[in-house]
Amino acid sequence: MRSRVGIVGAGQLGRMLALSGYPLGIKTTFLDRSADTPGGQVAPIIVGELDDPERLAQLAAASDVLTFDWENIEGTRLAPLEGTTPIRPPRAALEVSQDRLHEKALFSALKIPVAPHAAVDSREDLLRARQTLGLRGILKTRRLGYDGKGQLLLDEADDLDEVWARIGQSGLIYEQFQTFSREVSLIGARSASGAIVYYPLASNTHSGGVLRYTVAPYANAPLERLARRYLKKVMEHLDYVGVLTIEFFVVNGRLVANEMAPRVHNSGHWTIEGCVTSQFENHLRAICDLPLGSTRAHGHAAMVNFLGNMPKMDPLLRLDGLAFHDYGKVPRPGRKVGHCTILARTARERNEVLSKALQWVEWT
Ligand code: AMP
C-alpha cells in the first residue's frame, strides 16, 4: 500500500480527497500557491507555484504517489518525476484532457460520438467552420477552459468580425451546438491491475456553463450501459489509474461526449453521503493500490452547488437528509464555495427536499 499521497492543487477536490483519506490512514500533502486554501486548511501544504519544478520535486519526495486536484500541469513538468514517484492518473491522460481538440480526437478514435467541430486558429478558419458546421455553435479555447470560461455561443446574429475582435486568437475550437434533452456524467475508478467500478449515471443541470445541481442515480439502463462502455474504452486505452469522469449530452437518445476530467468530479460530490464508497475514497484506493470499494447508492441523492456565496446554514440543516459542505473559500461571483447533498429513500422525496433546498440557495 502507498500511504503518502501528494496532491497538486489544494482546491475543494483536494480537500475532499484528503478528508476521505483520514479513515484509511492515508496522509496527503498539497502543493498550492497559498496555505489558506480548501486543502491547506485540512492537511499539510507546500506553498509554491503548481508547476514549479523544485516544488513538484519536493512534493514527490514527500509522497508515494502523485495525483491532482488541478489537472492542467504541463506534461514536461511532470515527466522528470515519473522515474521516482508514480503519477496517477498517468501523464498521457492529463495531457489529452488539457486540449479539447486532442480529447475529441481520442473519443473519435475510440468510436465515441462527439459534436462536429473544427480547430480555429484564424478568422478564416472560423468563417469556414461556420459555413461547414453551421450556426449555432460554440467557440471555445482549446486549453484551460472550464466551467464555461473562455466560451462564446455564436448564432446568426453575431457578426464574424466583431466575434473575432472579441475573442479571436489561435488555439480555439468551434463546436456545433448540441440540442440536448439532458446532460449526464459517468464517473468510474480503475485500479492498476485493471479492475473497474462505475458509479450510477448522474443527471446534471448547468447554467452559464457552470454546474448548478446534480441528481443521481439517473435511472436509464440503456444510456448507463453505453456510458460505461465508453468510459471503459477510454480507461483501458490510457491504462488509467484513478477516477475518471466523462460528461455527455443526450441527443436524440444517443450519448455525445462533451469532455472528460482525469480526476474526481463536481457531479460526483453526492457520492460522499450517497454511495458506500465515495468517488474521493475510490480515487485514493485506486492510486494507493488498495481494493476498490462498492459504488452502490444508498438511495436517491441530489447535490446543489453553492456559487458566489454561502447560503444560510440553519434552514438547510433543518431539511431531512441534507448534508452541508463549506469549502472554506472566500466568496467571489461564480466561485464554487460549497455544496449540499440530499439523500432520500425515494426519488419523489429527494425531489421534494431538493426543491425546498433550492429556495435557500442563490447563485451569484
Ligand atoms: P464545457 O466547459 O465544455 O463543459 O461546457 C460547459 C457547458 O456549456 C456544458 O455543460 C453545456 O451545458 C454547454 N455546452 C458546451 N458545449 C456545448 C455544445 N457543443 N452544445 C451545447 N451546449 C454546450
**Helical fraction:** 25-40%
Give Rg in angstroms.
20 Å
Helix and strand run: EHEEHEHHHEHEEHEEEEEHEEHHEHEEH
Mean pLDDT: 96
Question: Can you list the ligands bound to this structure?
Answer: adenosine monophosphate
Terminal CA distance reads: 43 Å
Biggest sheet details = 9 strands, antiparallel
Number of E strands: 17
Question: Helix count?
Answer: 12
**Strand residues, percent:** 25-35%
- Characterize the overall form: globular
Structural class: alpha+beta
Poorly predicted regions are: none
Search tags:
364 residues; alpha+beta; nine-stranded antiparallel sheet; four-stranded parallel sheet; 12 helices; 30% helix; globular; binds adenosine monophosphate
Structure, described:
The protein has 364 residues and is α+β, with helices and mostly antiparallel strands. The chain contains 12 helices and 17 strands. Strands 9, 10, 11, 12, 13, 14, 15, 16 and 17 form a 9-stranded antiparallel β-sheet that branches. The longest helix has 17 residues, at 221-237. Bound molecules: adenosine monophosphate. Adenosine monophosphate (AMP) binds next to strand 14.
